[in-house]
Amino acid sequence: MAVEKVALAKAINESLRRAMESDPKVLIMGEDVGKLGGVFRVTDGLQKDFGEERVIDTPLAESGIVGTAIGLALRGYRPVVEIQFDGFVFPAYDQIVTQLAKMHARALGKIKLPVVVRIPYGGGIGAVEHHSESPEALFAHVAGLKVVSPSNASDAFWMMQQAIQSDDPVIFFEPKRRYWDKGEVTWSTSGSDADDAIPGPLHKATVVREGSDLTLVAYGPMVKVCLEAAAAAQEEGKSIEVLDLRSMSPIDFDSVQASVEKTRHLVVVHEAPVFLGTGAEIAARITERCFYHLEAPVLRVGGYHVPYPPARLEEEYLPGLDRVLDAVDRSLAY
Questions:
Q1: What pTM value is reported for the model?
Q2: Best label site of 17, 85, 127, 185, fewest CB within 10 Å?
Q3: Secondary structure (DSSP) of 291-303
């Protein structure tokens, strides 16, 4: 198996390239995805190699981009749409919620909508307003959409190919402040090696650090923070398990439950506001499933219920090491 250490953005680029090589129906669309290669260079070089008819620079019109992708999908294509930044997805929200998510059920399963909507999301890069939001819960709440987010280069490579192969629409949230984090990726696509390289089904959560005292559940950009928190807690003799959720819809509750039954303590961490967020759903479900195993209430660490702040204040808004460790201490002391 060929293994290479690459940045998360490069892993997505290579995943898109391989999907386009293997299926001529795969198209890429979005603002500046062609000649520029995307704001974050995720699509760099793809238009040069696959042409302007398969890597399409679109007008600045998110609703039109997604609407066109829906039409192409109905004609047998597999469009991969880029929304340039998280806060710009809302002009396309109507198309995604009222058309893309419902077409499959509306047609009693006869129509497939293999559309991937890529959204760079989250903060931590010092951007201006509308460039640092975490709207994943808004999409996870909508039946008919799959909502996923990789936290590392290997998952980004494999999950993107799995998303493109899905016959259902996938909202693919990319943690933009992790775009330049490097990790090992196994470039295997066939044969027995692929079974070892592929990190499980698209919606399977993964234990990225084993522990016995408490479970930290996170996804996307917060997985790295939770791993750092677990390492810091280890120095104080606390054994913390870290679970990378990977998918916010559907959620792999079985894996969360298995971890909580072992550790008896759960803290959910995400960048989005805690109020009515992904953590709220996990807390409710795990309380139902593990009531007699839990030794403390499920705690949540996340953003505040305010508009995302100016760049100079974002470190106060984003969950950091201290806030995660404080929740760990509060749970274990309960």
A1: 0.96
A2: 17
A3: TTT-SS--EEEEE
